[in-house]
Amino acid sequence: MKILIVDDFSTMRRIIKNLLRDLGFTNTAEADDGTTALPMLHSGSFDFLVTDWNMPNMSGIDLLRAVRADDRLKHLPVLMVTAEAKRDQIIEAAQAGVNGYVVKPFTAQVLKEKIEKIFERVNG
Amino acid sequence: MDHDNISMGDDFESTLKSHARQLTESLEKGNFADVVQIIHQLNQVRDRGLYQEVGKLTRELHNAIVNFQLDPRVPHAQEVSQISDATERLSYVVTMTERAANRTMDLVEECAPVVNGMADEAQSLSVEWQRFMRREIGADAFRDLAKRVELFLARSERDGAKLSGHLNDILLAQDYQDLTGQVIKRVTTLVTEVESNLLKLMLMASQVDRFAGIKHDHEGLRAEQEKQQKESSRGEGPQIHADKRDDVVSGQDDVDDLLSSLGF
User: Fold this and answer.
1) Nearest CA to CA, how far is B247 from chain A (Å)?
2) In terms of Cα–Cα distance, which of B173, B187, B200 is closest to B104?
3) How many domains does chain A have?
4) pTM over 0.80
5) What domains lie within chain B, and their CATH numbers?
6) A104 and B258: CB-CB below 8 Å?
7) What is the mean pLDDT of residues A26-33?
């Protein structure tokens, strides 16, 4: 299980990386926005994408849309972990095809629940 | 100064009214020399007012520039400008919070294997200890167990001291809150000051608009602003008054409810 973590703040990437490791996911890579994430997704055979929304250059929602529009990536499970808390935005993400939405600040428990739920659905 | 503005504007308006009456009277009488004279006078009053208001506005702008030390022609303006100073202060806050977060995470990452190691060894010793209590082990095995217990005790003492030191360092790493809090308070004061000065400039500029008869497309500007805000794909960052707004979720439970209502 290879996971890509996309966030423009290195501290947040580190927090998510640590939480994922506690959940048993040790194979992770990091990118600081959509433009650096996309080429990694194309070449890296990732199984899961965790992304922030608000980032310079290419935002998380645009990254999500790019992933869904790409034939090779469109089935990749995407979890959004973001401070964006407007109802319209959550609906927008849902319509763009997000698999889960975690609003910051979050707990380890919430992250675990959402990831497990996504895998249940993907495998089931 | 605001008082002057109002009286100046009122003066212009009363002149305008009285001259308008004279103007129609002269027009009706067919006295065109007077008509031209009145129009000329009106123009003069308007121009005088306009020059005065533009003058005041320029002076205030100049004062604002001096106050905030924004003039790039002044030597060392970069170092003394309050705005670039504020920008630097905020960058300092970002650096400090990032450093504190990384320091804390470094220490937590160092603590985790120590704690896990202690727990694992305690568990394994506990199994052996139960066997000993049930008299299931022989003299050789007991000597091994005693040796392990001795090592474990020594290691616990050492690891305990290490953990306690790390916990203290984690505590100390939170000192950024005090330092960044002070910096942010100063920047907040500056922002308030800039806002009130901008407001003053805007009031003076509106006086110029009045004399010059300039009309702004406020609705167009507002529509433009709202359009920009609607482009949500850029993201807005954390919401400050989430609990007081209907269009914002107040936590993960709200998100889950919303998503399940959408069939997730």
Assistant:
1) 6
2) B173
3) 1
4) no
5) 72-190 (1.10.287.500)
6) no
7) 95
Whether residue A83 lies within 8 A of chain B, CB to CB, comes out as yes
What's the whole-number mean pLDDT along residues B201-212?
82
Point out the residue among A14, A54, A103 whose CB comes nearest to the CB of B249: A103
CB B209 within 8 A of CB B216: yes
Please identify among residues 217-256 of chain B the ones whose CB lies closer than 8 Å to any CB of chain A: 232-239, 242, 247-252, 255
With beta carbons under 8 A apart, name residues in chain A contacting B249.
Answer: 85-87, 90, 103
Q: CATH number of the domain at A46, please.
A: 3.40.50.2300
Q: What is the mean pLDDT of residues B107-121?
A: 94
* Residue range B140-157, pLDDT digits in tens: 999 999 999 999 999 999
In the block, tokens 């992770």 appear at A28
pLDDT in tens, B247-256: 888 889 999 9
Amino acid at A69: A
List C-alpha distances in Å: A9 to A114, B217, B239: 22, 40, 18
Q: Which domain holds residue A14?
A: 3-123
